[in-house]
Amino acid sequence: MRILVTGGAGFIASHIVDALIEQRHTVAVVDKLSTGFVENINKRARFYPIDILDDALEDVFAVFRPEVVIHHAAQIDGQMSLRQPRFDAETNIIGTLNVLERCIEHKTRKIICASSAAVYGPPAAPVIREDHPIRPLTGYGISKYTSETYIRMYGEQHNLDFTILRYANVYGERQGAKGEAGVVSIFADRLLAGEAPIIYGDGEQVRDFIYVKDVVAANLQALSLGHCCTVNIGTGERTSVNRLFGFLRDLTGSGTQPVYQAERTGDIKHSCLDNTLAASVLAWRPVHTLESGLASTVRDRAGLAVTARNQTTL
Ligand SMILES: NC(=O)c1ccc[n+]([C@@H]2O[C@H](COP(=O)([O-])OP(=O)(O)OC[C@H]3O[C@@H](n4cnc5c(N)ncnc54)[C@H](O)[C@@H]3O)[C@@H](O)[C@H]2O)c1
């Protein structure tokens, strides 16, 4: 299949690109390298270094003629979306609209889009199903839900198949550790550097940590399944931030204690996703345990830390 991956230089989508190429698909990546890295892009993918908001996206569709688009390019920082809601909305809503319009014009068969648990807002249940009320606490949650709504509308009006994947907290190799990136990569890097990670609130807030390779598997399933569906992609397992910290401290062999600071506006107290629908419509279930996923992630980050140290001492 000819598959266009937006955000393919970023954390999650670069793993998706690798898996698609492994399965012998023809892959093109569109990424403006704002938070992604050219080193993440598989050498066997075509790379278009452009913004999804750019008119040049039209040329990419005209030349590459994707059968499927896997859309991951986005502004991903919830705190930034509170400070700069306009920038967030432009990238996530107008950017998605630009991708959608190109899909319609060039008769793309399907769009698979990364959404987020941030659309739900404060949970009314310990584990959230897809029919949970939508009450986002950040511009990011609003922009993700608005994009979902446009995708559904375009899908229904123009016969464009879609699967919307609402991810829980994704972690794994290649995740950024700047700004509001994943708590796992931020904690792991701090512990490996002998520094104290910051925990906002008392650390008893619950998250659903899903390993990136499980997320990749869900995207691969969505190539042929999940017709016009919106599904949660999470483990359904509740892990407190304190417990996560404990796992990472053991894996890094660090003796450091965390520093607790006040809760932040826009942070959801508890978040855990029910994955029953994904099991039925995508025939997908996560297969990686938190312990094994964290161990792979820490090994990777420890290797990066050694390389960075060697480079500065050379
Ligand atoms: N990481 C998570 O825990 C998580 C959870 C829920 C949803 N998501 C969603 O998954 C997707 C990927 O997230 P990620 O964690 O890999 O983030 P990431 O920042 O590593 O990847 C995003 C990529 O998009 C690119 N990009 C940003 N704006 C662009 C633009 N205007 N034009 C072209 N490229 C642009 C960036 O350079 C980057 O490579 C995002 O849509 C995000 O909202 C992630």
Automatic annotation (TrEMBL):
Gene3D superfamilies: NAD(P)-binding Rossmann-like Domain (3.40.50.720), UDP-galactose 4-epimerase, domain 1 (3.90.25.10)
Pfam families noted in UniProt: Epimerase
N-terminal signal peptide: none
Domain NAD-dependent epimerase/dehydratase: 3-234
InterPro entries: Epimerase_deHydtase, Lipid_A_modif_metabolic_enz, NAD(P)-bd_dom_sf
Protein name: UDP-glucose 4-epimerase
Organism: Paenibacillus darwinianus
